[in-house]
Write a structure and sequence with these properties.
Elements: E1 6-10, H1 13-26, E2 31-34, H2 37-49, E3 54-58, H3 59-68, E4 73-76, H4 80-91, E5 97-102, H5 111-118, E6 124-128, H6 131-143, E7 148-151, H7 154-162, E8 166-169, H8 174-207, E9 211-216, E10 221-224, H9 226-232, H10 250-257, E11 262-269, E12 272-283, E13 286-296, H11 297-314, H12 330-343, E14 349-352, H13 359-368, E15 377-381, H14 387-395, H15 413-416, E16 421-425, H16 432-444, E17 446-447, E18 456-457, E19 461-466, H17 470-475, H18 481-487, E20 490-493, H19 504-516, H20 527-535, H21 541-555, H22 562-581, H23 598-612, H24 617-624, H25 628-640
Parallel strand pairs: 1-2, 1-3, 3-4, 5-6, 5-7, 7-8, 14-19, 14-20, 15-16, 16-19
Antiparallel strand pairs: 9-10, 9-13, 11-12, 12-13, 17-18
Helix pairs in contact: 2-3, 12-13, 19-21, 24-25
Length: 647
């Protein structure tokens, strides 16, 4: 660290002698010179120009230097006790006493109390701004019959004696000098740290890829970094230190002289487009300068493309919004409205619902409309990662934490989600030990990597999802009750598709357009098919429905009979559903038919079974081993032939 330079400008020889003595005793290095008032100010300016860090002085001389210099000036304090001592001494020399001081110190002492303590009812006070006013006040005191003048400046005492009055000096105590020396040392350390910070900031500014230009309150350019010099093809030495009106380049001059705030302004500099930001700096409500930053448009576009590519590759952005949620039913609209309200909060959200209902889409949408939408969105399915690896994925690990740990360690997903949202899908699959760790993160907002001792603060919103009943998992001891209540602050339940059937056909249309483009439309299919699709329970919910339409889109490629294809797929869907539910044991099922043509016997079988099942076509299709679509088709054909099947 550089050697500090402290100067003491002493207005009193006695003060100088005491300062020398104390500085030697304390090994306090400083320069001491004798000067007062205007002469002291002149010397102070010379010391400032030569690199002094701090100046120590006293009384009016110190006050004048404080006003004239930009470096710190430490005043040696004069206490009320020091004033009382001087006034007590003055009382021995005359009846009428006057105290003289600089106008800046007019309110420092309680002279009414001091006069009462010393029984000085005639104590007068005189205050001045400069030597000329001081001389005028001295004459006024003499004309008012003052016998003794008390002051902290030797020049005041000297002038009093020249005008035939007694003069008594107010001296500073040893303690006041030591305190001033210590304050000066503290200020030196602060100034050195400030210079280090300024130099550090300059290095940062000079090495940033953005152009940076700064102008102070006096319209003088203080910073013009290499990126700015390159853009304007102008060396920084030709700009720094100049006033804005002295800059030769008109475009740069006009840019700097305008002090209005401007963000995102596009201009052409050196044949390339750049984006400018101009920000006025206000300190204490007053304009202190202006900072201008700019960057090449091409660099911004390339950087944005690179960042987006990396984020999407890592899955750290939300890819869906509420606009991607299809459905007009009251149930789904209520869910969306509730989720929008949750989005503006920072509280934990627990999303429940069967598999395939769209829980992850809601999580993405909530993040996308939250105050954290500018931060990362990190999603993880707790059921797809082995339990012995899940802890390291969530909380990270330090180097050597376990066999195979990556050199240098690795950040966990909570660290990567800092400032954003983490989505924990299938949270019911967490082990009890991981549930404890997660609870700690939610309560204390810190994580600790595996094998590490460092506590890492994280600012992350948690959205969790499950297709299980967590309250039931708690009762069975498979899920921590305290974690359940910590997660259950905001609860969102997504209803299954069978509870909002009015959304089925709009969803089919949406997926047809998604996978088929203009190749398929719901209106093109027979009513019997669309009716079946509407009545099907879709146990896999929206995911099953989307898979069904996607399969149709793949198989429909190049086919000439899309109707037949859809019928076959509906039959497959019905058969799979019926097989999964079981076909029954068939005990006691028998009917009698007359020998006839194959078509005639088919008519008899369908008619008898229809009557047995009381017109339940679903049960009839199950017993015949065919889909309802095929059954409806056969019934329509038989009715068209005039057969009286059901009478």
């Amino acid at each position: 660290m550089e050697v500090a330079r402290i100067i003491m400008v002493s207005p009193l020889p006695e003060l100088s002698r005491l300062a020398h003595q104390i500085s030697q005793e304390l090994s306090f290095e400083m320069e001491i010179v004798d000067a007062f008032l205007d002469k002291g100010v002149e010397l102070g300016k010379e010391f400032e120009q030569s690199g002094a860090d701090v100046i120590i002085s006293r009384g009016p001389t110190g006050i004048l230097m404080r006003k004239a210099l930009s470096i710190p000036v430490v005043l040696i304090q004069i206490t009320s006790y020091d004033v009382i001592q001087a006034l007590f001494q003055a009382r021995q020399l005359g009846r009428k006493i006057a105290y003289f001081d600089h106008v800046k110190r007019k309110e420092v002492y309680d002279f009414a109390s001091i006069a009462e303590i010393l029984s000085l009812p005639d104590l007068e006070q005189y205050f001045y701004n400069d030597e000329a006013e001081l001389d005028e006040q001295i004459r006024m005191a003499r004309n008012n019959g003052v016998d003794v003048i008390v002051a902290s400046g030797s020049c005041v005492v000297r002038m009093a004696k020249e005008h035939g009055m007694e003069g008594v000096m107010v001296y500073s105590s040893r303690e006041a000098l030591i305190e001033a020396f210590q304050r000066a040392q503290d200020l030196v350390l602060v100034r050195q740290k400030d210079r280090e910070k300024a130099e550090f900031l300059k290095v940062i500014i000079d090495h940033t890829y953005n152009g940076v230009i700064a102008v102070n309150r006096h319209n003088i350019v203080t910073h013009f970094n290499p990126a700015a010099a390159e853009a304007f093809n102008l060396p920084s030495t030709n700009v720094v230190g100049l006033k804005t009106e002295q800059i030769s380049l008109p475009q740069l001059r006009n840019l700097l002289q305008d002090r209005t705030e401007q963000r995102g302004e596009v201009q052409t500099v050196g044949g390339q487009q750049v984006v400018f930001n101009r920000v006025p700096i206000y300190i204490g409500g007053e304009l202190s300068g202006t900072v201008i930053t700019f960057q090449s448009v091409n660099k911004i576009q390339n950087l944005e493309a690179s960042i987006r590519k990396k984020l999407y590759a890592s899955g750290f952005v939300s890819r869906y919004s509420f606009a991607d949620l299809v459905g007009n039913s009251g149930e789904i609209r209520e869910c969306i409205d509730r989720a929008r309200k949750f989005a503006v909060s920072h509280s934990t959200v627990l999303i429940t619902g069967e598999s395939g209902t769209g829980k992850e889409l809601f999580a993405h949408s909530i993040h996308g409309e939250s105050p954290r939408k500018g931060g990362p969105f990190v999603a993880i399915n707790c059921a797809t990662i082995p339990k012995d690896l899940l802890e390291s994925e969530l909380f990270g690990y330090e180097e050597g934490a376990f066999t195979g740990a990556k050199k240098g360690g690795r950040s966990g997903l909570f660290e990567l989600a800092h400032g954003g949202t983490i989505f924990l899908d299938e949270i019911s699959e967490l082990s009890l030990s991981l549930q404890s760790n997660l609870l700690r993160v939610l309560q204390e907002k810190v994580v600790r990597r595996i094998g590490g001792s460092r506590i890492i603060p994280v600012d992350v919103r948690v959205i969790a999802a499950t297709n299980r009943l967590l309250a039931e998992e708690v009762s069975r001891g498979r899920f921590r009750e305290d974690l359940f209540y910590r997660l259950h602050i905001l609860n969102l339940h997504i209803p299954p598709l069978r509870h909002r059937r009015s959304d089925i056909l709009p969803l089919i249309t949406h997926f047809l357009h998604k996978y088929c483009g203009h190749a398929g439309s719901l209106a093109e299919f027979p009513r019997s098919i669309t009716r079946y699709l509407y009545e099907h329970d879709w146990p896999g919910n929206v995911r099953e429905l989307e898979n069904f339409v996607e399969k149709y889109a793949i198989l429909a490629e190049g086919t000439t009979d899309s109707f037949r294809l859809m019928e076959e797929l509906v039959d497959e869907l019905a058969n799979f559903r019926e097989e999964s539910q079981g076909n029954g044991d068939g005990a006691g099922d028998s009917i009698s038919v007359n020998v006839d043509t194959l078509a005639g016997m088919e008519q008899q079988i369908i008619g008898q079974l229809y009557r047995q099942n009381q017109a339940d076509k679903k049960e009839l299709a199950r017993r015949l081993g065919i889909s309802r679509t095929t059954l409806w088709k056969k019934i329509k054909e038989l009715e068209g032939s005039g057969a009286r099947l059901f009478k």
